[in-house]
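Saturday, quiet lab. Running sequence design on the structure tokens for the scaffold JK sent over.
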């Protein structure tokens, strides 16, 4: 996923591979505090997208045909839980969780857990706790 796509999908920051450790730590702290972090070298590009009206619009609301349990599983995927952690949290077997994950991926059209996690965050954005 490139910068524009990542930002359109809801990323709060984008750094280049050549970012220093200090830049990375500063960006993580900025995003954790509720801000946004962009590599200085792409700021001009992002401003250009906005000026030209080419910035992507936010995605439309999502209405999925998921069961309540599948929504719980999707939410936990979005929170970064592994299958065994989801199983423990929901008092299910790991094989049952795998079946729910498979159903979630099929119903949402997500390619993988990462896409499912992005979708989960669009449906129920994580709330930042006050510092």
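Result came back. Writing it out in full:
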């Amino acid at each position: 996923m490139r910068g524009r796509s990542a930002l359109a999908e809801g990323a709060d920051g984008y750094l280049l591979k050549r970012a220093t450790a200090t830049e990375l730590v500063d960006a993580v702290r900025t995003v954790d505090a509720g801000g946004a972090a962009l590599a200085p070298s792409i700021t001009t590009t992002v401003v250009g997208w906005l000026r030209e009206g080419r910035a992507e619009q936010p995605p439309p609301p999502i209405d999925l045909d998921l069961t309540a349990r599948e929504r719980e599983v999707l939410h936990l995927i979005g929170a970064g839980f592994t299958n065994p952690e989801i199983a423990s949290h929901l008092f299910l077997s790991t094989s049952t969780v795998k079946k729910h994950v498979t159903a979630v991926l099929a119903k949402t059209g997500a390619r993988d857990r990462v896409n499912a996690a992005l979708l989960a965050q669009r449906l129920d954005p994580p709330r930042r706790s006050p510092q």
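Notes for JK: The mean pLDDT is 79. The longest strand covers residues 13-14. Ask whether to fix the surface positions before the next round.
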